[in-house]
Amino acid sequence: MVYFDLDNTLLDFNKSQREALKRSMKRYGLIVDEKMQELYEKINEKWWSYFAQGKYNKDYVVVARFEEFFEAADIKNGDPELTSKEYLDELSRLAFFMPGAENTLKYLKQKGQRMAVITNGVERVQQGRSKKLNLDKYIEFVLTSERVGKPKPEPRIFHEASKLSGVPLEKSIYIGDNPESDFQGARRAGIDFILFDKDNKAEEFDCPIVNDFNEIVRLLE
């Protein structure tokens, strides 16, 4: 069984989140420039790191990130709860494949490879984006940490995926881009792992590191 992470592995999350933020900020008459975008992304990354560490639950994180963002960007009339809802609504409708991802899924599917997704993202967002791109043509299911109740790097989500697929983890492999949640989660669960590092930023890890989907196919074959 081949499991993929979703955000910034199969799907271009950065592109989706940038567009979702622009649309959400229109409520306040704001045009999101590069500086504001970078500020949000830094704050967002920090809060999702807290989530992966088990410090806060998902419902708290998705609002708290906007509370901090509004304060840091000096947006006086910001409504974090309303903006969080609107942002997630927008995000669930915005889905773009990473370069080479769809062709790889098609190729592997034609070869008879079974595939699924394991992700820390918000359930309704990840299911919405997956449906937008008809991922069910290639994969058997999308399993989110929200549904399981524990985020990666906790190993529970991998064991739940194994139950759903009926394939032991020792006969499976996971492919993801995040050294913290993906690599550590896979290691704790005892599943082989490939680090997808399209920007060549990763330090050395005790696993294969690839930069594009052609390399992924070569390793799988």
- Count of helical regions: 10
Tell me the series of helices and strands, N- to C-terminal. EHHHHHEHEHHEHEEH
Query: At the fourth CATH level, what is the homologous superfamily of the largest domain?
Result: HAD superfamily/HAD-like
Spatial extent as radius of gyration: 17 Å
Beta-strand proportion: 5-15%
CATH classification, class level of the largest domain: Alpha Beta
Structural class: alpha/beta
Order of strands across the main sheet:
3-2-1-4-5-6
Outline: globular
Reported by name, the CATH topology of the largest domain is Rossmann fold
Could you list the spans in which at least 5 consecutive residues all have pLDDT below 50?
A: none
Number of domains: 2
Helix content: 40-55%
N→C terminal distance:
13 Å
Quick take:
By secondary structure, the protein is α/β, with parallel strands linked by helices.
Any overview of this molecule?
The protein is an alpha/beta fold and 221 residues long. The protein folds into two domains: 2-12 and 95-220, 3-Layer(aba) Sandwich (Rossmann fold), CATH 3.40.50; 13-92, DNA polymerase, domain 1 (Orthogonal Bundle). The protein has helices at residues 13-25, 34-52, 58-72, 80-92, 101-110, 123-132, 145-148, 156-165, 179-189, 213-220, and strands at 2-4, 115-119, 142-144, 173-176, 192-196, 209-210. Strands 3-2-1-4-5-6 form a six-stranded parallel sheet, with helices on both faces. Helix 2 packs antiparallel against helix 3 (58-72), helix 3 (58-72) packs across helix 4 and helix 4 runs parallel beside helix 6. The longest helix is centred in the N-terminal third of the chain and has 19 residues, at 34-52. It is globular, with a radius of gyration of 17 Å. The two termini are 13 Å apart. The mean pLDDT is 94.
